[in-house]
Amino acid sequence: MMSRPSDTLHPISEYAHAPILILIIGFMMLQPLSTDLYLASLPSLSTVFGVPASTVQLTLSMFVIGFGGAQLVIGPLSDRYGRRPVLLWGLSLYVAASLLCASAQSIDVLIVARFLQALGCCSAIIIARAIVRDAYAPADSARVIARASSWLSLAPLTGPILGSYLQVAFGWRAAFVALSILSGIVLFAVVLRLPETNVHKNPRATELRGLLANYRHVLGAREFWAHVLPGALSYGAIFAFISGSSLVLIKVLGVPTAWFGYCFAFGVSGYLIGTIVCRKLLPRFGPTATLRIGSTMSLAAGALFLGAVALGFIHWSVVVLAMFMTMMAHGLNFPVSQSGSVTPFPQQAGTAAGLMGALVMVVAFGVGTVVGATFDGTLLPLASIACALGVAIFASVRLVAHTEAA
């Protein structure tokens, strides 16, 4: 895709020799692929290991728990020791854990391996956010994340479909073999081409006193909450569809399982469009106005979904359209939120990125739990949750004052 001159982004001169943006895209793709690539294999895991579906679901929930908790540790580690060594260890763990997943002979081993895989995946995501803060000018950081997110959207677009073909052709282990190969390539690229970008290493970042001081500094900043709240709630909104769309589309509305991946991919295409729109809006209107536009779209998506269901429009297209609009709004909200939560903290970038990621995962875990607990065989619970989150996103942007990035 050709970019106009106004959309051309380059790292600061110290890192002009390194393919920083390409590496960031590779890091960020690991998270959606870690989940989406084996979604089609979940039913077969229950049969292969002879366990109930609730046990198989632990391979998802343990990944979320591991991913969320590790962010509180990995961020400070990268602030103290640098981005590169933490990333090398994390990616090495991811490769080993993916191979362990592929060779697991019991569901217990698979669950443990998924937890370890989450720790490695977490390092890639946290370091990606911190590197954006290190290697790009603050004014460009939101646009960098938006561009990376445009490419990132290819993972949830193609992951479930590719995973379906791997499952049919080779079985459930194939998805984890593919993840091992992909992460091995990313690790090799880091060894060859990624320089150390943390020039403000903080030797006290992992000391208890220093750690608490950094947490207080970040959590006490209005700029942090002004971006984290809408970002976490926006992720919660799309996670409601990630965790609930298969239930309502397949079980309630009778969409064939073979077509679910395509319905999901259409919804995720909204995220791709949203990130492209975000890249166009940022240089013209700035981060604050872009986030206001995105949060308004979130509110509209949730309200229209609930309104349609309340009026009796019970059709698969209503769910897919609501998912598309929610994903598109997220494509505007999340790049601005990720950038804005880290940019004010040059010496605590890893800590800020870790705190944001942990809060996002807490919201996602909570939303997923509520979606599962409230499912009653109708569309109303999912529509109500989507609307409530849309209202919360809209309100969070307007109740917490924003400061424009310099």
From TrEMBL:
Listed transmembrane segments: 12-30, 50-74, 86-105, 111-132, 144-166, 172-194, 232-253, 259-278, 299-329, 349-372, 379-401
Listed GO MF terms: xenobiotic transmembrane transporter activity
GO BP terms: xenobiotic detoxification by transmembrane export across the plasma membrane
Chief place where the protein resides: membrane
Pfam families named in the record: MFS_1
Gene3D superfamilies referenced in this protein's UniProt entry, alphabetically: Multidrug resistance protein D
A Gene Ontology term for the protein's cellular component: plasma membrane
Keyword field: Cell inner membrane, Cell membrane, Membrane, Transmembrane, Transmembrane helix, Transport
Occurrences of domain Major facilitator superfamily (MFS) profile (ranges): 20-406
Subcellular location per the Swiss-Prot or TrEMBL entry: Cell inner membrane; Cell membrane
Membrane topology listed for this record: Multi-pass membrane protein
Family note: Belongs to the major facilitator superfamily. Bcr/CmlA family.
Stated name of the protein: Bcr/CflA family efflux transporter
